[in-house]
Amino acid sequence: MAATHSPQRRHSPELKLLASIAFTCTVVAYVAALAGPMPAWAGIITPESGGSSNANSIAGLYLIVLIIAAVIFGAVAGALVLFLVRYRARRGHVASQVRGNTRLEISWTGAAALILVVLAVLTFSRLHGMVTPAASGDHAGAVFATVDQPSAPGGHALHIKIIGRQFIWRFDYPNGAYSYEELTVPINMTVVVDIYAVDVNHSWWVPKLGGKFDAIPGYVNHTWFKITRPGVFVGQCAELCGQHHAEMIATVRAIPLAAWEAWVGRQKQLIARAGVEGQAAHAKLNSQTGAAQVENP
Amino acid sequence: MATRAAPLPQIASHRVERERRDWTSWITTTDHKRIGILYLATCMVFFLIGGVEAVLMRSQLAVPNNTLINAEHYNQLVTMHGTTMIFLFVVPVWAGFANYLVPLMIGARDMAFPRLNALSYWLFVSGGVVFYASVFWSPPDAGWFSYTPLSNGTYSPTAGQDTWIYLIHLTGLASAIGAINIVVTIATMRAPGMGWGRLPLFCWGILTQAIMLIVAIPVIGAAVTMLLTDRHFHTCYFDPRCGGSPLLWQHLFWFFGHPEVYIMILPGFGVISEVLPVFARKPIFGYKAIAASTVGIAFLSVLVWAHHMFTAPIPLVVLAFFMLSSMAIAVPTGVKVINWVATLWRGSIIFKTPLYFACGFLVLFTLGGLSGVMLAIFPIDWQVHGSYFIVAHFHFVLVAGAVSAVMAALYYWFPKMTGRMLSESLGKLSFWFQFVGFLVTFGIQHSLGLSGMPRRVYTYNAHMDWGTDNLISTVGAFILATGVLLTVANVVRSLKHGVAAGPDPWRANTLEWLTTSPPPVHDFDVIPKVLSVEPMQEIRAQIAGQSRAVDRQRAEARHARSVAAIVARSARRDA
To answer: Do B457 and A246 touch (CB under 8 A)?
Structure first.
C-alpha cells in the first residue's frame, strides 16, 4: 500500500489544481445561471427560448448543466492530455506498476454520484416553471404539461386542440373555429394544448415555445405556452411521419386579444363561406356527373 | 516502421498440417478464427455500404431545398443506414472480434459449440442478404425503430418493412445463438488458473454483452413477430383503430433498444481496457472496478428504456424514475473513463495507432456521455429529443465510441490475425482524418438541433438559417469518409505488403500473443497455466529466465572446454 500511496502524495498538487479549477468553474456556472441564458447563445449552445416562460426555464436549466458538463470534460480531457505529454516513453523512464487505489476509486465514484444528485435536485427544483402553466395575464388557467400535470391557479386559459395528420397540423379553437398550419393565439393568455393524432405518430414542437410533445393515435398529450409579445414562432413535426415529414411545418402567430377576437370572427365567416361554396360546388358536380359517383367529397 | 524485434523464442507450433485453403473450406469451416474473419470481412462490406448511405444523406442536406435525393429515397436511406450500421455492422463486428479472440484470450482451442458458431454467422449473412434484396423492389422507410402505426400495413404496405422484420429475426437469432456460445465458452473453457479475477477485460465486456443479448433479443423477436401478425394476419397489438397501442411498440422496442446501445459499446469498453495498459506499459488501473462497472452498466441498462420516450404521453412520475435511472448509469460509465485516464498516469506511453484510437475514444466518448446526461434530464430532452442534437449525441457514442474502438481493435489485433503489421503512418493519418472529420460532422449538429432542426428531414427551407451548419457537417462527413477509406486501403495493402509481425509485436499481456500470428488451427500447442491477469508477463519472464539459464549453461560449457583445452595444452607442454 505504501508504494501506491507515495506517488499519490507526490502528485497531490495536480489533484489540487484540478479541484480548484472545478470549484472556480462551478462558482462561475452558478453566477451565469443566476444571470440567465443569454439570447445570443440560443440555438447555438443553448436551446431556443424567448417565446414562452417554459422554454426559458428549460434553456436556463440546460445552461447550468452545460457548464457543469464542460467543467467535467475539461478535467477529463485536461488530465488525459497532461498524462499523454508527461508520461510519454523516454529513455530510462519506467512505468510505475500501480494497479489501482481503492480510496481514490471510491472517492471519484462518490464524486460522480454526487454531481448527478446535484443535477437531479436542480431539475426537480426547477420543474415547476416548466410543467405548471403560468397564470394568464388578467385571467388564470388550469392546465397540464404532461398527462398528469398539476393544475394551475384557477381562472381562464385558451384551450386548443392540435391534431396531427399526414402531413399537416390542424388547430381547433374552443368556439368552433379551426385553422390549418398556422395557430393564432392572443398574447398574455395561457394557451393549453391537447395534442392528438389521427393516423401515425407526430410530434408537436415549436422550439421557442417549450419542448416537444408527441402526438400519438389513441392518446392525448398536453402542453402549454404563454406568449407575452406579438410575434410569429415557427416549428415543425419532430417525429418521422412518412414521406413528407419534412414539410409538416407549424407556425404560431401571437396577436393582441382584441385582434385575436376579430381574427376568430373572420375565420368563422371564412369557414362558413367556404362551407356554402363547397356545397354549391358539390351540388354542381352532382348535377354534372350523377350523385352516386361523388359520395365522398 | 518501428516494430520491435521478435521476442525470444516462444512456444510455437511447427509442421502442423494446415486446413485446406480453397474457397469451399471457408463455407464449411467451424474454426472460430475463420468464422471471426468471415464476420469481420462481411461487416466491413456492410460498414462501407452504410457509410455510402450516410454520405448520400449528408450530400442531400448540404444546401437548403436540395433536390439530389427525393423524400421517398431519403426516408429509405435513413432506414437502411440506421439498420445497417446497428444490425449489420456494430453488433456483428463484435461477434467477429469475440469469435476470433475469446478462445485465444482464455487459452481455449475453439468455441464451445463450433457448428452452432458457423450457424450464427450464416444466419447473420442471410439477414443482411434478405434486407438488401429489398433494394431491388421497395426498401423499408419507417426508420430503424419502425414506430407503429407508420410501419403497419396501412402506412407501409410494401414488403420492404417485412424484410426489415426478417432482418431482425435472422440477425437476432444469430446474436442469441452466438451469445449462448460465448457464455458457455467463457464459463467452461478457460485455461487452468484463469479464475474470474484473471479474465481479460475484453472477455468481461464480451461476456456481459452476451448476457445482455440473451435478455434483450427475445423481446425484439416477440415485438417484430407481433408487428408481422398485425401487418398480415389482422391482429391488433399496435393499431389504435382496433384497440391496440402504438406506445406498446415503443416500450417493447426500447426495452430491447437501450440494452442494444450497451451491447454495441461494452465490447468497445473491453478493447480500450486491453489497449491502454499495453501501450502505457503498466497494468490497468482498477481491474475490479472496471469489470464490476461493466456488469453494473449491464444491469442498469434494462431499467432506462423509457428515456427514449420522454416526449410521449407518460405520467410525470414515470419520467422522473427514468431520469434517475438514466443518471445512475452515468456513474459506472464515469468510473470507467476516470480509471482509463488513470491507467495512463505514470505510465511509459508508446504512441502507436491503437493508442491514438483509444485516446480519441476517450475524448469523444466522454463528450457523448456528457450529452447523454443532459438528455437524461427530461425537460432538456423535451427540447432536444428527435432533433439533430440527438443525432449528434448517438453518433458521438456509436461512431466515436463503438467505431473508434473497432478501429483500435483492428489496428491492435490485425497483426495477430494476419501475421502482418498495418502501416503506422497510414494508420495515424487515418486517425487524424477520422478524429477531425468526426468532430466537424457531428459537433456542429448539436447546434443544428438546438436551433430546431428535427432529424430525418430530407430537406429544409433556406429561411431557417440551417444552411451553413449543414454544409460544415457535410464537409466533415467527407473528411471522416476519407479517414475510413485510408484504413481500408491500409488493410488491403498490409495483407500483402505489411511487415511481418511475429507472435507478440506489442509486448502485450494476454494469451493470444503467446501463439504464432496467425495462430494454427488448434490455437496453442501447449495450454499455459495462468498465474495472473497479465499471463504473458510471467510467460515472457519465464522464457527469459529459461534462455538465461541456457546461456549460462552454454557459457559454463564453453568455459569448461577452454579450461580443458588449457589443461591439455599444458599437459602437452609438460610432456
So the answer is: yes
pLDDT at residue B418 in the model = 95
Check if the beta carbon of residue B268 is closer than 8 Å to that of residue B396: no
Taking alpha carbons only, the member of B312, B293, B309, B290 closest to residue B301 is B293
- Predicted local distance difference test score (pLDDT) of residue B259: 94
| CB-neighbour burial class of residue B115 (10 A; exposed 0-12, middle 13-18, buried 19+) | exposed
For residues B294 and B567, give the distance between their C-alpha atoms in angstroms, rounded to a whole number: 69
Q: Note whether A97 contacts B283, CB cutoff 8 Å.
A: yes
**pLDDT tens column, B263-288:** 999 999 999 999 999 999 999 999 99
Q: Is B335 within 8 Å of chain A by CB?
A: yes
* Contact (Cβ atoms closer than 8 angstroms) between residue B221 and residue B171: no
Go through chain B and tell me how many residues it has. 575
Interface test with A, best of B230, B377, B404, B538 (most A CBs within 10 A): B377
Can you give the CATH number for the domain in which A232 is found? 2.60.40.420
| Nearest CA among B394, B226, B150 for reference residue A203 | B150
**Interaxial angle between packed helices B201-232 and B160-188, expressed in degrees from 0 to 180 and rounded to the nearest 10:** 150
Range 401-440 of B in CB contact (< 8 A) with A: none
- Assess whether A57 and A108 both reside in one domain: yes
Segment B310-351, tens digit of pLDDT: 999 999 999 999 999 999 999 999 999 999 999 999 999 999
- Structural domains of chain A, count: 2
What is the predicted pLDDT for the residue at A190? 87
Q: Which residues of B touch A225 (CB under 8 A)?
A: none
Give the structural domain span for A205. Answer: 158-288
The topology under which CATH files domain B30-533 is Cytochrome C Oxidase; Chain A (1.20.210)
What 3-state DSSP class applies to B19? Answer: coil
Strand order in the sheet with A231-236: A182-186, A249-255, A231-236
Q: Are residues A208 and A125 in the same domain?
A: no
Q: Is residue A162 domain-shared with residue A282, that is, in the same domain?
A: yes
CA-based nearest distance B553→chain A, Å: 30
DSSP assignments along B384-406, one per residue? HTTBHHHHHHHHHHIIIIIIHHH
Q: What is the 3-state secondary structure (H, E, C) of B214-246?
A: HHHHHHHHHHHHHHHHHHHCCCCCCCHHHCCCH
Mutate to test the interface with B, among A123, A125, A143, A147 (most CBs of B within 10 A): A123
pTM (predicted TM-score): 0.89
Task: Indicate if A163 and A248 belong to the same structural domain.
Answer: yes
pLDDT at A215 over 60: yes
* A126 and A170, same domain (yes or no): no
Q: Which residues 515-574 of B are in CB contact (within 8 Å) with A? A: none
In chain B, domain spans: 30-533
Which residues from chain B sit within 8 angstroms of residue A219, using beta carbons?
246-247, 312-313
Please state, in angstroms and rounded to a whole number, the distance separating the CA atoms of residues A291 and B7. Answer: 93
Non-local CB neighbours of B541 within 8 Å, separated by 6+ positions: none
Q: Quick one: A265 and A205 in the same domain?
A: yes
- With H, G, I as helix, E, B as strand and everything else as coil, classify residue A253: strand
Give the integer Cα–Cα distance in Å for A271 and A177.
Answer: 8
CA distance B121 to B174: 7
Residues A43 and A121 in one domain: yes
For residue A226, the SS3 value is strand
Distance CA A178, CA A181 (A): 10
Residue-wise pLDDT tens digits, A120-176: 999 999 888 888 887 776 543 334 455 555 444 445 688 899 999 999 999 999 878
CA distance A130 to B534: 53
At which residue does the C-alpha cell 405518430 appear?
Answer: A201
Q: Is residue A117 part of a domain?
A: yes
